[in-house]
Amino acid sequence: MCAALARRFRDRTGTSPQQWLLQQRTDHARLLLESTDETVDRIARDTGFGSAVSLRHHFHRMLGTSPAAHRAQFRGAAH
C-alpha cells in the first residue's frame, strides 16, 4: 500500500488499514456468533479469517475472550 494512502487512512480512521480490516472482520464474526448457529470454522471462512485458529487468535487478542465463550456468554444473557 502506498505510504501516502496509509497516512491518510490513519488520519481519517485513527488506525492502520490492516487494524481496521481486522476490527471489521472481528465485529462481523461477533455478530454471527450471536445470531447464528454456524460453526466457528464456517464463521472464520465467511469473515475472511480463513481458519478457526486465526479467528480464535484475533478474537481473543481484540476482545479478550474466545469465540465459543463469547457465544455462550451472549446466549446465556439473552435467555
Automatic annotation (TrEMBL):
Q: Which InterPro entries match?
A: AraC_XylS_family_regulators, Homeodomain-like_sf, HTH_AraC
List where this protein forms a coiled coil: none
- SUPFAM superfamilies linked to this entry: Homeodomain-like
* Presence of the UniProt keyword Flavoprotein in the record: no
What Gene3D superfamilies does UniProt report for this protein, alphabetically? Homeodomain-like
Give the superkingdom in one word: Bacteria
Protein name (database record): Helix-turn-helix domain-containing protein
Q: Does the keyword section mention Metal-binding?
A: no
Keyword vocabulary terms for this entry: DNA-binding, Transcription, Transcription regulation
One MF term in the entry's GO annotations = sequence-specific DNA binding
Which residue intervals define the domain HTH araC/xylS-type in the entry? 1-73
A Pfam family cross-referenced in the UniProt record is: HTH_18
